Predict the structure.
Amino acid sequence: MKKIKVSPSIPQHIEVEKVKENHVRLSVYPYESGYAISVAHPLRRLLLASTSGYAPIGIKIDGVLHEFDSVRGMLQDVAEFIINLKGIRFKVKENDLETLTMEYHFTGPKEIFGSDLSGEKVEVVTPDHFLASLNEDADLAFSIILRKGIGYVPSEEIRDLLPEGYIPLDAFFTPVKRALYTIEKILIEDDPNYEKIIFDIETDGQVDPLDALREAYKVFMDQIAIFNSELSIVDAKSNGALSKEDQVLLRKIDTLDLSARSYNCLEKAGIEYVGELLLMDRKDLKSIKNLGKKSLDEIDEKLGELGVDLSSMDDERKQALLERIQTIKANNG
């Protein structure tokens, strides 16, 4: 007998199969008919477009003026050397670093591979990737600027970001090599119209595939957070439509694009909204566990970018704002 539902079923099962290193297959089910693709397609797009990774954006080679030059004693010309370098993938050990400059010096005879570029601050996740061949006369010194980013950025847009003497490189930041999904019909309680999503995710080793999926999920939630009806409902019961200032104060802190370290400290302290940060006493903010000077400076910078001036806000207005935030948190809790 056909049942009349008042809400769609919520998937209850997730199975993870490790295909090989940095490659997983996930099965998630059961979804109502049509719901699987609504979930799978945006997550796939965000996996490919929004997962952050590191890539070299510039290189400076001693004695080299441009990418069409050559290096004495190196078999490859500079253009081929750069092509080989783009295939080397770096994993920065301190993930909150946005930019890092690495310096290298090799003498021949030597075959240089990705593993030769690993160091104290970076790990090369493509250790067998070939870079260059040096003969006994070669003396190769170069520095690379690594940058964290998403997607692809052509060298023309990078040129102005580099110090003098650096050759700009096309930057391929995305660490996700494969993000595919299939949708299968499954039988649930004699109903053959339920669906299962099977995700196939592979990364280059900079990030774990499951972490990449978590990041895609977070980006997805951030993108739709503006539709959160709870804010509109609570505000309508109090002061009507949200003012421009209130819109900023009632934003979630995850919209500030803080580093993972700063965000995790605030989250553990129970701080969810920008208004809580702006109204917090400086002494109380400094007392948050594990929130160091670097994180405090970052928070100050992000709050400064919002352009909100609270100097004219009286104590009653501030208290009302805090109470509203507490009400929102309680309703969402």
User: Anything to note?
Assistant: The longest helix spans residues 315-332. Confidence is low (pLDDT under 50) at residues 232-237.
